[in-house]
Amino acid sequence: MHPTEVLFLGKHPPVLLPACDHYAGSEKLMRKSVALQHELGAVFDITFDCEDGAAAGNEIGHAQLVAEVIASTENRFDRIGARVHDISSNFFEQDVKIICQTAATRLAYLMLPKAESLADVSTAIELINRHSQHAGRQNLPIHVLIETHGALADLAAIAALPQVESLSFGIMDFVSAHYGAIPGSAMRSPGQFTHALVTRAKLEIAAACHAHGKAPSHNVTTEINDSAVVAEDAHRAKTEFGYTRMWSIHPQQIRFILSAFSPTETEVSEATHILLAAQKADWGPTQYLGTLHDRASYRYYWTVLQRAKNNGVVLPPLANSLFIH
What is the domain class of 18-261 according to CATH? Predict the structure, then answer.
């Protein structure tokens, strides 16, 4: 039996997305990102940005460009999504309609920014479904950017929505929404990992995602030139806050994020040995190096291999047999 048929009996396996979500706004940056994805493979997602990427007055043209690239042969892996304008914007439905008409069947997801509540997200999904279904796409995945007090208050309900597969933390808008009560230093490291109101938001987002099998996506690192800061932020997001995904705003950040979020060679080897022994024992209890394992730990080690595979880590040949259905 395939591991997922045994380990997640009666429930869906958690959503496992590429560890890096790279944002690109202008046409030049969009095409550079696509070229890099061709080079590295489908180990990171690209989000084309209509909210901040469109020049004032060119919202229609920008949405059309986003749709055309996603629908084209340039999109080799179907791992390009789009951030649309927020639901209160006059351009929200326009973005959704233009993108879905041309690219609904090729979209990886749509990102919703600045939602104020569960009601906002539900209304947005209803409208998106109307346009995407008309274009032949059912249940288009939705990512939600958590950056308002209202969205934070409705986290659990938003994460529970079936079409929502990821929640992202919008740290800059979240800090700004406190009107000076949180210092600007909390938008970057080390403050973002020490200010209580910011860490509370990060932890609640991660907890809500894990409770509903969704992917928590960590906020951007605004530091571009110092790769050590990017690597450290990614490491802390993963190990201290439970995030499985992180935004990138510059191509130089992608490899450091992937490295930080990828299981080590030792972890992959351990997971392989434990799961192969479990498979041989028909998923009953086993021992590895004197430690007892059962289906609870098997689920953990299965996700280790899944994340390694998603991030482009070369698996041991025997591990690949676990993925054969």
Answer: alpha beta
The pLDDT of residue 93 is 97
pLDDT score for 9? 81
Helix (H, G, I), strand (E, B) or coil at 48: strand
Residue with tokens 């490491």: 235
C-alpha–C-alpha distance, residues 111 and 125, integer Å: 11
The residue whose two tokens read 């009560």 is 181
Domain ranges of the chain: 18-261, 265-323
125 near 139, Cβ under 8 Å? no
- pLDDT value at residue 324: 64
Q: Is 227 helix (H, G, I), strand (E, B) or coil?
A: helix
Whole-structure pTM over 0.85, yes or no?
A: yes
Low-confidence ranges of the chain (pLDDT < 70): 324-325
Rounded to 5°, the CA angle 27-33-35 comes to 105
Report the distance separating Cα 38 and Cα 34, nearest Å. 6
Separation of alpha carbons 260 and 234, rounded Å: 6
- Scan for tokens 């351990």, then name that residue: 270
Sign, CA dihedral 251-184-205-293, equals: positive
Q: Which DSSP state fits 282?
A: T
Find the helix or strand (DSSP H, E) in which 167 lies. Answer: strand 164-169
Cis peptide before 162 (omega within 30 of 0): no
Contact between residue 245 and residue 17 where contact means Cβ atoms under 8 Å apart = yes
Tell me: the pLDDT tens digits for 11-39? 778 899 999 999 999 999 999 999 999 99
* Cβ(243)–Cβ(260) below 8 Å: no
Tokens describing residue 312? 């482009």
Q: What is the mean pLDDT of the chain?
A: 95
